[in-house]
Amino acid sequence: MRQGWRWFGPEAPVTLDEVRQTGATNIVSSLHQVPIGRAWTKAEVRERQSLIETTPPGRSQLIWSVVESIPIPDAVKRKGGEAKAEIEAWIASLEAVAACGIPIVCYNFMPVVDWTRTDLDYVTPTGATAMRFDHERFAAFELFVLERPGAAAEYSDEDRARAKVVYESMTEAEIAELTRIITSALPGSTTEPLTIPGFREKLIAYEGIDAKKLRQHLIEFLEAVVPAAEARGVKLTLHPDDPPRSLFGLPRIASTAEDYAALFDAVPAAANGMCYCTGSLGVRADNDLPAMARRFASRIYFAHLRATTREGDGRTFHESAHLEGDVNMVAVLKELVAEDRRRSADQSIVFRSDHGHRMLDDLQKNVTPGYPAIGRLRGLAELRGILHALDAPPT
């Protein structure tokens, strides 16, 4: 298995030389500066690739192995195959990536909002901080800040009462910060930052789109793009919903094993793959992570390895240290290693330690939320230790 590291580009707080010091060898990156929906050019991809792969004398080689992500425009999620111009632009970006020899592309199909949290610096018992999704704070935002029509009917009387207490206890500054976290698009997001009025308009645009229709739109997208990927030797990997359940009354269709099975049955080509994210999938207690890894082993080209801890009834969760929480990382890695041993070296699974606690010196620094250097380094070291114990040292 190949050790990856997500790098947000030349403006990122973590430099490429610091990435080398972690022991990672494969870079996961994207052209975040390109507006969503505009086709990437080969020159733009090559410029980023050169920055990553041009190695200073005496330094370890880094390879850009995964694009995370080429964002899918909102029109594709709402219209499916009818969004022809947007799909053609996405294929053009894919072609630019393929022309530069980058073999894996990650994407997601979450409508309106990408990965969602309510707290970016939840203080853990160690003093390190983690990201958290607090169900009561989320309900307070949806019911009393966004004021989404119909939302009240989706909460119990007890949920609404607790959300009201939470909302009324918050200062204006706290409400503004919660709003910013939920609406402003977190790092790596493939959706646009939103104002509250803009958020409401987006939700209205999705009226009438249920899970069945959204899944059909994703299948239509895959039917258009998978042949282009397959012809160019690129693997597409769908990231799970985060969290893996409906938010804001919107359907989510990459949350369970059966969700993925439906997509692989509909578009069986090998290029239609999975980004196996243990953190996202692990939020659901009914997701058997080792079984999912075993079932979809041949489809897993890219893995996000992290852990989450469910709180209370499971609707609230926070990011755990990589070997803690509700993910049996040893069992997961046994399955991934078994699959990896069946592959040639150039087809080896790329994994990265995903997210990480903000700790030590990073508590005093400006860091990318979810992506501090030290917390991810701790996670990578722990994952590397498991792989060595399994007699499968990473490359």
Automatic annotation (TrEMBL):
Protein EC: 4.2.1.8
Family annotation (InterPro entries): Man_deHydtase (IPR004628), Xyl_isomerase-like_sf (IPR036237)
Cofactor dependence: Fe(2+); Mn(2+)
Key words of the record: Iron, Lyase, Manganese
NCBIfam families: PRK03906.1, uxuA
UniProt family annotation: Belongs to the mannonate dehydratase family.
Its biological purpose: Catalyzes the dehydration of D-mannonate.
Stated name of the protein: Mannonate dehydratase
Species of provenance: Rhizobium mesosinicum
